[in-house]
Amino acid sequence: MSIPVDDSVAISARVAKIERENSRLKRLVVGLAMLSSVSAFVGAGSFVRRGSAQETGPRLEGVQAYEFTLRDAAGRTRAQLHFGGRPTPSPELVFFDETGRTRLSIMADEMETSIVTYSPDGGRFRTASIADLNGANVDSSMVEKGVPKGIVGLFASPGLTQMTVWDAEGFRTTVGNAPLPGATPRKPELTNAAAVVMYGKGGNVLWQAPPAPTKQ
C-alpha cells in the first residue's frame, strides 16, 4: 500500500525533526561530559587556576598550580613538581620508581642548584652535581645506611680546583689544589694544579708530589 503524498511529507518532516533533536541532545551530552572533566581536573588541585602568560601581548593560557603529581596506571606516584621543604620554599622536581624510592631529584633555590640521581637498589650508588655561590661540585659515591663508603669528587672555584678520591677507611688522594702541611684558614697555602697528595686516616700527609717546599 502506498503512503499518500501528504502523509509522506509529514513523516519526513517528523523524522527530520527527531534527527535534529537527537543531534542537539548529543551535543549537549558531549558538552556536559567535557564540562565535568574540566571541573574534576580543577577540583583535584585546589590551587589550580588559569592565567595569562602575557598581560599586554597575545593571551597564552596555561594551567598553574602549587603542586603537580604524576601517577601511573596503578595509581602510584611516579613524579612530583612541588616546593621542597626548605626554610625558603623552592621548586623541586622528583622522580620515583614503582616502590616509591626516589630516583632523580632536581632542585634550585637562591643558594644552589642541584641534580642528584639514585641507583635502582634504593640509592646505594649516587651522583650529585651541585653549583652554589662557592663553586661547582660533582660527586659519585657509594652509600650504606646513609654513610658514604667511597667518593670520587670534582670541585672547581676561583681559588681551588681539585679531584679527590676517598675510600671507606678514610684514606684519600687529591689531585690539584690541596692544603700544604701547616696551612690554616687564615693562611690557606695550597699546592698547584699539578700536585698529587695522599692522606692517611687522620688527615696526615703520606706522600706528595712535587714535595712540599722547604721552609726557610
Fold and architecture overview:
The structure is a single chain. The protein has 216 residues and is of the alpha+beta class. Among the domains are: 64-133, Nuclear Transport Factor 2, Chain: A, CATH 3.10.450; 134-204, no CATH class. The chain has one helix and 14 strands, in the order H-E-E-E-E-E-E-E-E-E-E-E-E-E-E. The chain has one helix at residues 5-44, and strands at residues 49-52, 61-64, 68-71, 77-84, 90-96, 102-108, 112-118, 125-132, 136-144, 147-157, 160-167, 172-176, 196-199, 205-209. The strands form two sheets. A twelve-stranded antiparallel β-sheet has the order 3-4-5-6-7-8-9-10-11-12-13-14, with no helix packed on it. A two-stranded antiparallel ribbon has the order 1-2. Strand 4 (77-84) and strand 5 (90-96) form a beta hairpin. The longest helix is centred in the N-terminal third of the chain and has 40 residues, at 5-44. It is elongated, with a radius of gyration of 33 Å. The chain starts with a helix and ends in a 7-residue tail after the last strand.
Number of strands: 14
Strand percentage lies at 35-45%
Secondary structure category: alpha+beta
Major β-sheet profile = 12 strands, antiparallel
Task: Give the rounded overall mean pLDDT.
Answer: 77
Radius of gyration: 33 Å
* Low-pLDDT ranges: 1-9, 37-53
- Total number of helical segments? 1
- What general form does the structure show? elongated
Describe the strand arrangement of the main beta sheet, using strand numbers: 3-4-5-6-7-8-9-10-11-12-13-14
